[in-house]
Amino acid sequence: MKTEVAAATPEAIAKAARMLRAGGLVAFPTETVYGLGADAGNPAAVRAIFAAKRRPADHPVIVHLADAAGVAYWAREVPPDAQRLAEALWPGPLTLILPRSLHATDEVTGGQDSVGLRVPSHRVAQALLRAFAGDGGRGVAAPSANRFGHISPTTAQHVADDLRGDVDLVLDGGACDVGIESTIVAFTQGEPVLLRPGGVPVTEIARVLGRAPRVPDADAPRASGTLASHYAPRTPALLAHDLAAALADHPGAAVLARTLRGPTGPRWINAPDDPVRYAHDLYANLRALDASGAAELLIETVPDDAAWFAVRDRLLRATHLDPDDRD
Predict the structure, then answer these.
(1) Which of 39, 76, 121, 205 stands the most exposed, by the fewest C-beta atoms within 10 Å?
(2) How confident is the model at residue 135 (pLDDT cuts 50, 70, 90)?
(3) Can the peptide bond before residue 236 be classed as cis, meaning omega within 30 degrees of 0?
(4) What gap in Å lies between CA 312 and CA 297, rounded to an integer?
(5) Residue 195: phi, psi to the nearest 5?
(6) Which neighbouring-strand residues pair with 150?
(7) What is the CATH number of domain 4-209?
(8) Angle between helices 10-21 and 123-133 (to 10 degrees)
């Protein structure tokens, strides 16, 4: 398969919508990361996503919708708290896990009785979803557009580096605004459960609901990005609480520093000491260090507070170093 990379013009977006309706794969930008999209109502097209990513078939994908009106097509129930979050935070980087309707196939849900739904805010994603869906409840299944288990893509070039030849079209909408994935909240066990921190701060979820979501237990549904190892560079990566001491033990490592500033170069990146900017740059920085040729990566730890919660989650998974447990 030849992969076309095209600027996200109206003509290219219309072409992408036609490709999706014909069962093709289209990578497109959202405010979080680039997604690898297929018609969520076409089981064969969704299976093609799994083949391209080399992703286990029992792992659910998120259905992207142009607006909240499409939720009723995919979910058989929308609890009041889920409705409140949707009204307050959609479009935006929030995924709701809801009881699935008959329209949500096992290919989308990973065989579970729940479905993940999201309304992205990115202008290109919105234009594509509206061009594809028309007046119906059609949605686009779209996990991150990268190989299973590796660093998520935040530019069209990242997608091409990972999936060239396995996707029909990549819409280039520039770098993603948020840079890490959506927050995932499940409504399958009565109370809201936080499955993954992300682009919407947990404090904002709590503000809307009037209480913090629960932490997941053994009965929580599976969801994207919740395995122990995920978002991982190919180069072994370690978290360093004391970066100077870690450098003494790993002198040849490439470094993602936060407070210990060094000379910027292929093997040393001084990351922003602001959680929003750090998140925006994180995957691009990890990809750059992964390509540096170093035998190891050292990542300076981030603060243990609410503002850094989602970033800290990504770093812990990226450095888990279990190649058999990557999403």
Answers:
(1) 76
(2) low
(3) no
(4) 16
(5) -90, -30
(6) 232
(7) 3.90.870.10
(8) 50
Q: What is the DSSP letter of 252?
A: T
| Helix residue spans in the chain (DSSP H) | 10-21, 43-53, 71-74, 80-89, 106-109, 123-133, 156-163, 202-209, 243-249, 275-290, 309-318
Decide: residue 316, CB within 10 A, 0-12 exposed, 13-18 middle, 19+ buried. middle
Model confidence pLDDT, tens digit, residues 236-282: 999 999 999 999 999 999 999 999 999 889 999 999 999 999 999 99
Q: Hey, how many other C-beta atoms are within 10 angstroms of the C-beta on 19?
A: 21
Element (H, E) at 239: strand 237-240
Q: How many helices (H) and strands (E) does the chain have?
A: 11, 14
CA distance 184 to 294: 34
Tokens at 69, concatenated: 């009106």
Residue indicated by tokens 């029992």: 58
In sequence order, the β-bridge partners of residue 254 are 297
CA gyration radius, the chain: 19
Q: Give buried/exposed letters for 98-111 (b at 16+ CB in 10 A, else e).
A: bbbeebbbebbbbe
Pick from 295, 305, 168, 317: nearest CA to 236: 295
Its pTM surpasses 0.85: yes
| Type of residue numbered 15 | K
